[in-house]
Write a structure and sequence with these properties.
single chain, Beta-galactosidase, Chain A, domain 5
Amino acid sequence: MKITLLLFFAAVLSGQQKVKHEGADGLMLSSGKVELTTLPHGGAFVDFHLQGEKLNAMWDPSRMAREAGARPSFGTSKGHFLCVDGFGPVTKDEAAAGLSGHGEAVKLNWDVTSSSSSHVAFKVRLPLVQETLTRKITLAPGEQVALVESEIASELPFDRVMLWAEHATIGAPFLKLGKTIVDQSTVNCQTKPHTMKGPRTFPSAVNFEWPAVPVEGGVFNARVSPREHGSMNHIGCLMDLRRTIEYITAIDTESNTMLGYVFPRADYGWVQHWMNYPANGTYSWGLEFGMQPYDMTKRDILALSPMFGQPAFRWLPAKGKVATKFAMFLTKVPGELRHVDDVRVEAGRILIEDKQSGKTVTLGFAAGLGQQ
């Protein structure tokens, strides 16, 4: 803890801006176009906004609960956080051995290994699963894109199943009833298997093609947030096998602001949508892209696999490493742009295309993702 704090303050002295987020120490990166705040404790991205504007695209459960006069249910290390090595619940045996839900990384202090006003690199050892995580976040000057590069290294001498999810989550006020639109490069999806109805309005374990969820009395268009609160559903989707670079976008149609993610399919082959709309207005929509379709124990994921003919997990080799990368971007879009048909990474740019309106948005992205 002492080393972490020393490195944290060294980062501040190097030009990094120290900030507070809901009482937690944070580091704010800036490109001159966008600002991104990350927490050394747990590594979450908790605030992502266009410079000069206040609208945070990230889920902020503490603020939402305070504004709703409710008790916080999720803590501060949220927004977009990393679930590794684990996603969702653990078995009774794992819990008895000290493991908890969503993996160790989100619960530990990450050491800052290098930093500047537009970049930070972290390192943290996960002692229970005996893995080491490194992560680097870079915002190029003048761009509206953050590049995130990560690596997990195993200390153990045998291959094993790993679970890894980028728990990217949007929340109110960016997320609004009936006014937020999500598009993605997927076709095959399934409603999450469940045994209890609760606030669920989707059937259990039903296959469908995005975004048409079969529900009682018709079809629900999953790309648009519901018009009424009171539901909580999950779906899992396979990223498009015809593509090498996948995308997920979310548009707040009131502010014409878009949050987007692009990533290699080889790194993240699935996305789970957690669609949570409680009556008190603390809405959250998880765009949880990762290496598996659902937040489940490893035992349950193995029993589920294959899904749509594809493995629902990834192997971590003996004494080996798994590396990933993705980019996240934030931009204004034309008022007519309400349907994303494609997002491409090419020639130092990200191109966002709406064929219905004929509108295209182009963002500079000099680093690229290293493949097309």
